[in-house]
Amino acid sequence: MSRSGAMSSTAAPRARLSPPAPASHLPRKRGRSPSAPGSTASWRASAENTVPLDHRRRWHSPERAPGRVWQRFRAPQPALPSSRLWVCSEDASKCSSSGDACTIMSYNILADYNGQNHPDLYLDVPWDALRWDSRRRLIIREIRHWDPDLVCLQEVDRFQDIAAGMKSRGYEGIFQRRTGDTRDGCAMFWKSKRLHLLEEDSIDFSEFNLRNNVAQICVFELNGAHKFVLGNIHVLFNPKRGDIKLGQIRMLLEKANALAEKWDKIPIVLAGDFNSTPDSAIYKFLSTMMLNISLHDRRQLSGLDSSEFGLYELCSLLKYQWTDEEVRNATGCSNVVVAEHPLKLSSSYAMLKGNSNNRGLHGEPLATSYHKKFLGTVDYLWHTRGIECTRVLDTLPIGVLRRTRGLPTREIGSDHLPIVAEFAFPESVEDDSGEEDESEQDDESDKEMSKAQHLFFSSDSSVEVTE
Predict the structure, then answer these.
(1) Using alpha carbons only, what angle is made at residue 353 by residues 349 and 357, rounded to the nearest 5 degrees?
(2) Other C-beta atoms lying within 10 Å of the C-beta of residue 120
(3) Strand-pair partners of 338
(4) What are phi and psi of 95, to 5 degrees?
């Protein structure tokens, strides 16, 4: 989830992976014993005076942190399982050999800037678990452990730090930074021995008056045989601006489709933090190809707004009021209230049945993100026909996540869990041109059957959003 929305017309150039600069090691300072009582000299922990982490104390300068002097360390968070389970497709035998399979990870790694500037979201997180040097090691270790062929990252504000860790594992990478005062962006990494980048493109949504978020769209070739489009997006967080969110997603789908058509209708995979829950109207737009926005309040399109609008419930018998600009943002035309996209998408996780402790009514994970204000799912891996999902890495049980009291932890480096899916190319693709497009059914019975799969802990969120 992005927590800022500043925008500027200043364009940010794409960055490409380059070898990391040689590390320079400073001489280690010798440990010193604590000064005598009353002395103002500082001291450094050494083997003699260091005690286990749980019993050490930290000192905060009264000038910098009034009222927080000699604060005891928090008790360590419960350890999480070191491994997650793979859920396999029953139809995996229809696909070609495993040599033509490709694993893709989507991971919002929590920008260091955002983590430091939103302490209200991480009140129960140990201070050392928020430090970037610690989180960077955990993030790199997590990626290396699952060893994906392609990695789509969001909230990347220290690209070179991540790139240095990926380079040694045989990955190449590209980065697209957001414009304006923001520091983060999206990044892609791929194994150069298996994948070849054929075409690279990106979307700076500020050019279309859709805020300063960005998306990446690339064409890859796997083992010199199979081509596909891969999209990576971090959708605007602001729950009140559902029109912007919908417009960003719509534009990504349109551009991904155009690129796939250019390369002879190759399949598409879309990864990212969509900042929308599985019970939301935006999720429905992705899965059914259309959405009548006049039947929805733009502040509730993504399912992230926990406020209860009594007045809007009272007026729900009437069509919600949208300005011409908001309609244009959402659908692309100020006089068209039905947003559409050209792709028949399937959600990788929803297509493969998982453990009931991990999955909700829509088949999606119960939670891919957890901090003080939110516990729920916003990360997805979508795909079109022509490529099949053979297995997914299931998320952690909701009870295990709750016991952490919030991410990141000393074992998990972000407030999101990475999601991973393996894709394979079927030997033959059936013609589905005669199939009828799924139509939208947006009536009251639909709303009653839809049950939220996310939890909010405060309706008065202090997360910074911009109108």
Answers:
(1) 95
(2) 13
(3) 292
(4) -90, 165
* Predicted pLDDT at 456: 55
Q: Which range, 84-93, 352-361, 402-411, 437-446, has the best average confidence (pLDDT)?
A: 402-411
Of the listed ranges 50-64, 109-123, 197-211, the one predicted with least confidence: 50-64
User: At a CB cut-off of 8 Å and minimum separation 6, what does 176 contact?
Assistant: 12, 14, 15, 185, 186, 187, 202, 204, 214, 215, 216
Spatial neighbors of 63 by CB under 8 A, at least 6 apart, are none
Residue 35, C-beta contacts closer than 8 angstroms, at least 6 positions apart: 41, 42, 43
Give the pair of three-digit tokens for residue 48. Answer: 């003699």
Give CA angle at 423 (190, 269), nearest 5°: 70
Whole-angstrom Cα distance, residue 283 to residue 99?
Answer: 32
- How many other CB atoms sit within 10 Å of the CB of residue 344? 15
Strands (E), 180-254: 185-191, 195-204, 214-222, 226-234
Q: What would the mean pLDDT of 132-143 be, rounded to a whole number?
A: 97
Beta carbons within 8 Å of 143's beta carbon, 6+ residues apart: 105, 107, 151, 166, 418
pLDDT greater than 70 at residue 55: no
